[in-house]
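May I ask for a protein sequence together with how it folds?
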Amino acid sequence: EATLSNPAVALPSISEARSAPEEIAPKADEKKPDAPPHAAPIEVLAPDSPAQQVVQAAREHAPAGLAQASLARLFSGASASAPADPALTEALDGVSLHQGFFGRAKLLDASGAPLEVLGSGQFGVVHRSATRSDIVLKTLDPVANLVWVPLQPGELLKDEIEVSQALSDSGAGPRFFGHAVVGGRHVFGKEGIEGKTLRDLIDARRYGAKEHQLVLELLERMARARLVPDDMRTVNIMIGTTPSDPAPRAYLIDAVKDKVEGSSVAELRRLGRYDAAARGLADALLRRAGQPPLAEGEDPRASRIMVGTIQRDSWAPKARFVDENRNALLFRPDLTLDEAREALRKNPTFAKAVGNAFAPDMIYIPFEEHLRRGLERSAPKRWFWRLWEGISEAFLNANFPAK
């Protein structure tokens, strides 16, 4: 078994999996990104090496063609959601809703007793079903949502369905059973996960070799599906088991779409600002996704391509596929496998907020840095080093008043 204290048995880093063979060959005019010097090619690794095991495990759970299917739905205007599973009807049997304080809603069972609450966040509350213990029920709180994000209830509902379905289809998240309306509120059914979040494991110094391997498998599944969400918070990654899969795995239980700031190609054409630079970005995006260039006249795809920036990548404008809410697609059909791995590895992920509680500065670090810190924090140490770490963390995380 690989341990941090045994340097002879090295753990696979995220970058070690970057050079695995690509199923779809890149276009002739594409330049494949160079692998870092320390990344050993997968082909020369032994079949039982940790890095090869990560790739193999991900290949078995990552269905192909999801990114292209997502793009086809985008251009056709079809919905990504499937009909609700009959299991959701069973899970909601006898369930009613109680309106709580500030828009918070509680679900009650047939006897009127509140369902077990498993957690809550800015988007709603998660309950365990009383009739189907393998299903958890998530309610959306529109009032709380409008405080945190500028989304209308209908827009938030569509995003929640698309994200849940994408995570389920790609194998990155738990199974999605669909949604229903209870007492005027939208309720979503997902398969329950018995385990701990990545943040809890890191805080408890229990993020070791086995957990690291499972997270790497999750990233590889996401890369193979070309699933690149915004801000993969450690609180949204769980390591555990589900009723349908008793083997421990890492799951992404929630994700956010990137908001694109800019103009669509259709808007640029109407304003007479569709210059050579914007055309080059749009044509390159379509070419990399296997799509023909935009027609000179009316082309419905023009409204689904935006030239602009996103919050975590604001250095230069890029062309991106967007939905009707101007959010970038979760699936990235324009990326190669290596590029998707790199994007996930470097994904700026929320670390903490400092400063004024009403206007905090949000600190983001690459996702791989979270994993590196987690491994270092969980490595076996003598008691005096743990004491020193605890004191250091207390001072670093303290909010001292300004003089």
